[in-house]
Amino acid sequence: MVGAVSYHPRVVTIWERFREYFADAGVPTDYVLFSNYERLVDAVLAGQVDIGWNTNTAYVSLDHRAGGRTRTLGMRDVDAEWATVIVTRRGAAFEDVRELAGRTLALGSRDSGHAAMLPLHYLREQGLDAERQATLVRFDTDLGKHGDTGDSELHVVRAVARGDADAGALSDAYFSAFRAERLPDVADLAVAWRSPTYYHCNFTVLDSFDEDLAQRWTAALMAMDFDDPTLRPAMDLESVRRWLPSGREGYASLVVAMTDQGRLG
Fold this sequence. Notes:
Shape: globular
Strand order of the largest sheet: 2-1-3-10-4-11
Low-confidence stretches: none
Order of helices and strands: EHEHEHEEEHHEHEHEEHHEH
Number of helices: 10
Distance between the termini: 27 Å
Largest sheet: 6 strands, mixed
Oligomer: single chain
Strand content: 15-25%
Radius of gyration: 19 Å
Mean pLDDT: 97
Helix content: 25-40%
C-alpha cells in the first residue's frame, strides 16, 4: 500500500496507471491519498500504509520520528539534482548574498524545503542570517503540501515582479516551468543565486518492511520504461523519465536546516 498526497487531480491519473503497472509486474500495489504530508507521515508510522511517496521535508520528518529506522526505495531522476534559486528583477542582481542584508526576501510556504527552509540554511552558510538581517515575506498558501502545488512560489515571483520584494526564493524546477509557460510575471526576472543541489522526493519505508517485498517492488519501479507508450503519459505527469536509487546523503543539508529552524521535535 502506497500513500501519496493529493496536491493536484493528476495524482489520481498517475496512480491508477501505476497500480496497473505494479500488478502486471507481479507486485500488486494499491494507493491511498492524503490531504497533507503530516497525515501521510503519521500513516506510515502507524502501519496504515507501507510506502510513503514523500517530499524531502516529509522524509526527514518521518526518519526523525522513526529514530532513523527507515529506508528509501527510489526517487525520480529530477529529484537527484533539485536546486533552489533566488531571483531578482533584471538589473537588480547581487554578487554576494550578504548584499541582501536590509532588503526584502520573499519565501514560499514555511513547510517547503526548497522554497523556505533550505534557502535560509544555505544563505546562512554563505554569511547571511536572513531571518535577522533581511525582511522576510512568507507566502504560506499551500501548507501541508510542502510546496508541491507551486502556488506559494507563484506568489514569490509576483511579489518580486511587483517590487514588493527585492528577491525571492523558489525551486529551479518551478522557475523553469514558469518561464516555459511564458508567465508574464517572470519575464523581467533573472536568477541571481543558485543553491547546491540536493535530493527532493523519495519512496520511504520503515525498516520493518519485508526486505524481499521491498526488493521486488523497487525492481519493478526501476524497470518502468518511459518509452512504453502506455506508461509515458503517467510518467510525464509525475515528471519522471527514469527512477533512481535514493539515499540519506542527499538530505543532509535539510536535516541541519530543519533542526536549526525548529522543524524537528
